[in-house]
Design brief:
Length: about 300
């Protein structure tokens, strides 16, 4: 079996990842995330029409009626005649805004010719609190994983895994800033799923590292890590391709409602493999060498 020096690629990979992280930080402060109604406050209405309605005609009519939409999009196939309206506002009665939409639609299409399937209202303060809670949830999840890894294996394994998880989350957030896709509670759920998936892949490799260490106590750290990565690579590829295949199918065929969720999942699966191989495991070697040198 051909042995590949994965650990030796750490410097190149870390520079590449550092560039992406810096770019994300710059975009975050200059461009910012496109927060959904969950996080910024506003009204989100899903409406289904009995007869076919053109998206352009609906947008023009609502604009003429001074309905301040932040986004209007079609959901599903054209034959379903379903639309999602998002109205962003930081003042005024949100219930009154929701009622206004229903009133103007009734004036145009008639009371029995459309149905409100969903009507979500989030106030600005509640949105800000949700946003804070969402990022806190991500931080607590990463902290809990760090404690688990330190107890499950050894303290030297924790920094590499945590660096890989933070790396994945930050770059996915960067992808959402770059594309200006809506960042909502749904995406936070995707990030938490990615954190779990990524750390599971890392734990499998760490288990193999510990087995090799116990069987070969005189073997060097670089050799142990590379051997563990090479021996688990087939499992990593098969598992990741399986998850990636499902994620891509849902991304392109699942419809607009779950599109952004699986956009995050697709990027996360790829990043999870990359960060485990080129960030988490190699960093464990350098953490061990640094601690020995410091001692």
């Amino acid at each position: 079996m051909k042995t590949i020096d994965y650990v030796g690629k750490f410097k190149i990979a870390s520079l590449f990842s550092l560039a992406l992280i810096v770019a994300t930080i710059v975009m975050f402060f200059t461009k910012g995330l496109n927060y959904g109604v969950d996080f910024r406050g506003g009204v989100e209405i899903q409406v289904k029409f009995k007869d076919k309605v053109a998206l352009g005609d609906l947008r023009t009519y609502l604009n003429d009626k001074n309905v301040a939409m932040s986004q209007l999009q079609s959901i599903g196939d054209d034959s379903q005649n379903e639309f999602l309206l998002k109205l962003e506002t930081d003042k005024g009665d949100l219930n009154a805004i929701s009622t206004l939409v229903s009133t103007v639609l009734t004036e145009k299409y008639g009371a029995g010719n459309f149905e409100i399937l969903k009507n979500d209202i989030v106030g600005p303060k509640a949105g800000a609190q949700l946003r804070t809670s969402a990022f806190q949830a991500l931080a607590w999840a990463i902290l809990a994983i760090m404690i688990y890894l330190a107890l499950r294996f050894d303290y030297k394994f924790a920094p590499g895994a945590i660096a890989a998880l933070i790396h994945d989350v930050v770059i996915i957030i960067g992808a959402f800033i770059l594309t200006q896709k809506e960042f909502s509670l749904q995406i936070v759920a995707a990030l938490l799923a990615i954190i779990g998936y990524s750390v599971n892949d890392t734990v499998v490799i760490y288990d193999r590292v510990r087995e090799i260490e116990n069987a070969n106590p005189t073997m060097g750290s670089f050799e142990i890590m590379n051997r563990a990565l090479n021996e688990t690579m087939s499992r990593t590829i098969i598992t990741s391709l399986t998850v990636l295949g499902v994620s891509l199918v849902m991304l392109f065929m699942g419809g607009s409602v779950i599109h952004d969720f699986f956009f995050a999942m697709t990027i996360g699966v790829v990043l999870g493999v990359y960060s485990t191989i080129f960030i988490a495991v190699p960093m464990t070697v350098f953490t061990e060498k640094f601690s020995k040198k410091h001692a």
